[in-house]
């Protein structure tokens, strides 16, 4: 099918906004996407009609509980979970990871080993580093291969021992865009008796996740990266989380998932979360799928990937024409399926922030800096204070926007070089 790009764009009010008559081009998507009107409407409707805390017997509290239950069921469908009870919803990925790391720390002792990658966002690094410092754990560092841009199975195998308790791994990099072979890496770590904690924040907007097929123990993502509100969602395998004792208030529920969800939930944002999942289901229905919500979500990703990948290659090809520009990630068209459409680059002798500021001045939104990919820039020898220029595509972007952005980047770099000469 032809991807219904015009119908998709009509669902996102932000895409039609202008600033002093100038259009906006949103290519800041790895840091957060725009939302469909249905997501904003769901949040507003919850605040206006079901605004109450949980646990009572009157109309609004009962309705609020339905909102919470619906959000857990929606995310179970989105991630392929066995049960909504495996879905833990909280403030954001980093907060949830800090909480779960401390909970898992109760099962560890001095001398135990954890493996962290040089490819992860800092939200899946610092919580574990600080846990190791607190408990006297040994940290083993897992680099990524600078030819494949992925974590290699053999490298992981060489780090495992009988003392390995956990592998923290990302699904896709928020800087290089590379997708790791999570299922294979998980299998290796599990064979050594380690738990596997997967950061899927950057992958979730661009590919279907099946937690049961992956075989990991935990997987986390952020709704605001896949057209939803600012929330984090953590899936935990039922037998694993059932055995854990989280930090919580003494009088709060011991049921799942409530005992991991601290305080009053963000009920209105959960309403938006369900609407974000239903947006994918609606897209799948438009693409011809008439089955379950899960099947519609899967079809939506098939259609979106087929649309996004040519845009990513168009961007990569256009950037590759610039002399002295280095793309940090997979550029081979034959390997396009091994990356998400997040493209980062540096230019010899030109500061990334200066490029970003000039392009931003043309109302093209993109990022510069290390983008919390702290370990990646250090492994690559990129000064952390400078970082990269990062352009991130979502399936509401267009080929015309990519072309206009490329024209801007070419022009800005040429201007900056002329100023230097």
UniProtKB/TrEMBL annotation:
Matches recorded under Gene3D superfamilies: Aspartate Aminotransferase, domain 1, Type I PLP-dependent aspartate aminotransferase-like (Major domain)
Pfam families: Aminotran_5
Lipid metabolism found in the keyword field: no
UniProt keyword annotations, A-Z: Pyridoxal phosphate
Domain Aminotransferase class V: from-to ranges: 25-403
PANTHER family associated with the record: CYSTEINE DESULFURASE, PYRIDOXAL PHOSPHATE (PLP)-DEPENDENT ASPARTATE AMINOTRANSFERASE SUPERFAMILY
Name assigned to this protein: Cysteine desulfurase-like protein
